[in-house]
């Protein structure tokens, strides 16, 4: 929609962001924050370390919104926070699409994508396809192939967020499931947005470093912000720091919806309102039952037994949170059963049988908790075989993960191939050696192979009939981030699939020691 000078001023005043305003009679046909996307009559929002010279030669900008004076001869709104201003202006520019969507959001250190796909699949079944998804893997805004694209961020920049919401609404979507990262609140990408349901899955140290959160306390505080901006909140009663998180939620909500395993030891002497029991967890599926207690009559619909089309009892935790979320959205029980029975998640817990070489698992596990859960599951499935791991760690972010990975590998791996993940501006071998230095178990055999595809081939080549090969970190990502460039990559799953095809045809994997 078009924005007038009066519109912009009113919006900024409403959110207590306005410092000063221009007096010119202005009308804007476009809004953006990227100089490459400027068109005629664009209101340009300056954010981050933007410099005036970046606008040299850019035609079409007729006014600015910024948190400092750029010294440019253009009308300008000065604001206290340009990131917040971008969010509230974007939602207005796209005519408040969130008002036409039921929105459920997940946060947590691990499991956000998995839980989001669970909820999306169930709601998609219940709404006859009228559900959108914003996840780390995909953004889906409609039923056509053109309505699906790969994500570049877990939670997109606010302009892209509301733009995609508008596309979803225009495509007839009525529901949206999305992931909300701590960075989304740190960078004010979801400023001013409220959710129908917010679910907090778990918390452990992650995303702590120079370019992310300075401390764990800061990381947790930004995660907790989802609780402040949701009408209903769901908490995992078995997560670390539960009492602190519950107290925060209870201070803002009359009812906090909790879930946990049957007969768990409660942290605050209160049993979870929803409990679940794991019945069976096999290599390719799991079975569990859910019971909603009498204090949650609006969630009785989720009670019953389920087959989950993914292995691992840790995935059952995520499934229960998703069931509670879609239950609050009015989903019928049949859609819940069918959704979980059929759900597939790109890059998550993908398994392939390897003739003569056991089974390979491909998973996006990229932090301490997710890797620990994955390797613990693998070890339980193969008590007589080895767990052989292929992984690396990203460069220039999440530096604490390297020590965390070393700790898990020391406990749960038999052999590990350390390789490149998304090294960015760091040397992947340096990252790998940092992980190796932290491995304190002499029985873990460490290999270095910086070519990721070769590392996968080598790991599979040395595996035996009873072994499990776990390829963690990239899933089906189509690129690796190297030196600031998205370098094309076939993806971990495709690399394992190559090995499977070679083994099925009797070929050797052509690897060198």
TrEMBL record:
InterPro entries per UniProt: Mur-like_cat_sf, Mur_ligase_C, Mur_ligase_C_dom_sf, Mur_ligase_cen, MurE/MurF_N, UDP-N-AcMur-Glu-dNH2Pim_ligase
Domain Mur ligase C-terminal: 348-475
Gene3D superfamilies in UniProt: Mur ligase, C-terminal domain, Mur-like, catalytic domain, MurE/MurF, N-terminal domain
Keyword annotations of the record: Cell cycle, Cell division, Cell shape, Cell wall biogenesis/degradation, Peptidoglycan synthesis
UniProt pathway: Cell wall biogenesis; peptidoglycan biosynthesis
SUPFAM superfamilies per UniProt: MurD-like peptide ligases, catalytic domain, MurD-like peptide ligases, peptide-binding domain, MurE/MurF N-terminal domain
Full protein name: UDP-N-acetylmuramyl-tripeptide synthetase
PANTHER family associated with the record: MUR LIGASE FAMILY MEMBER (PTHR23135), UDP-N-ACETYLMURAMOYL-L-ALANYL-D-GLUTAMATE--2,6-DIAMINOPIMELATE LIGASE MURE HOMOLOG, CHLOROPLASTIC (PTHR23135:SF4)
Family per similarity comment: Belongs to the MurCDEF family. MurE subfamily.
Subcellular location: Cytoplasm
Organism for this UniProt entry: Fructobacillus americanaquae
Mur ligase central domain boundaries: 107-325
Domain of life where this protein originates: Bacteria
NCBIfam families listed in its UniProt record: murE
Gene that this sequence comes from: murE
